[in-house]
Amino acid sequence: MTAELGKLGIWRLSTGLDPELAIEVERLGYGTIWIGGSPPADLALAERLLDATDGITVATGIVNIWNSDAGTVAESYHRIAAKHPDRFVLGIGAGHREMTDTYTKPYQALVDYLDRLDAAGVPASGRVLAALGPKVLQLAGDRAAGAHPYLTVPAHTRHAREILGDAPLLAPEQKVVLDTDPERARATGRAAVEMYLNLSNYTKNLRRYDFTVEDVAVPGSDRLIDALALHGNAEQIAEGINAHLEAGANHVSIQALGDDPLPTFRTLAEALR
Q1: 163 near 242, Cβ under 8 Å?
Q2: Fewer CB near the terminus (10 Å): N or C of the chain?
Q3: Could you give the number of structural domains in the chain?
Q4: Looking at the domain assignment, is residue 3 inside a domain?
């Protein structure tokens, strides 16, 4: 991979990102801003964030292959890469069966999309795949710079590293709630996690890592929520983030839950130095 992601980044939905936040996150020392959700094929937000900052990397987490034409995405990639060399990473993925009417043969659709990106000159070193299961993780190692798993635990990170091998990037997302009141923090975490428990790709993946049918049933067991949305003080959250790094992640993208993410990003930047 030509872009430098650093050890830590931030993950935030596109609606919660703006140049001012990007400038502050860069000042705090984070290496990458992940644009969450399904940003459109023009990648305009990524360009605005890069324009506003000096050296931080911007990545998409992720462009959805079902609603973003590969040719348009490739044009956007080349536009941004020419303007901001080695600072943009194209994250792509197949999304969720429950949210896409045309969701058929997703693995082959992802392979075909990568073929179109190849034909348009988008380098494998400039892209990562949203990958959970073994087959797509292997594809991420073979056809991209690595994997950007979402809603996972360190046990998945360890398994993903075994599949990928040593060289490819492994950059999981981790939700956090900077709050030492367990019930209040758990409620915040559950509000962010619960909707994903209606999506079979996530629940199937979590079942691989010692979570039961009861754990992954809506609204999620306390045990599940505590694992997927780390909570506590800065040191406790840092321990959970470091667990991904110790399990083989190169980089962790932190999703700060709550109304204002900046206090969390500031506090964790200190704790994780």
Answers
A1: no
A2: C
A3: 1
A4: no
Give residue 273's pLDDT: 85
Write out the two tokens for 206: 């979590």
Domain assignment of residue 143, given as a range: 8-271
The segments of the chain whose pLDDT lies below 70 read 96-103
Q: What is the pTM of this model?
A: 0.96
CA distances for 172 relative to 3, 60, 101, 243, angstroms: 17, 13, 27, 11
Tokens 């999304």, residue located? 95
Give me the helix-helix angle, 154-164 and 134-143, nearest 10°. 50
- Helices (runs of H) and strands (runs of E) counted in the chain: 12, 11
Q: Are 3 and 57 in contact (CB under 8 A)?
A: yes
Q: Which two tokens stand for residue 34?
A: 């992940």
The answer to the question of residue 1 being in a domain is: no
CA distances from 123 to 77, 116, 118, 119, 170 (A): 10, 11, 7, 10, 18
DSSP calls for 67-99: TS-HHHHHHHHHHHHHHSTT-EEEEEE---GGG
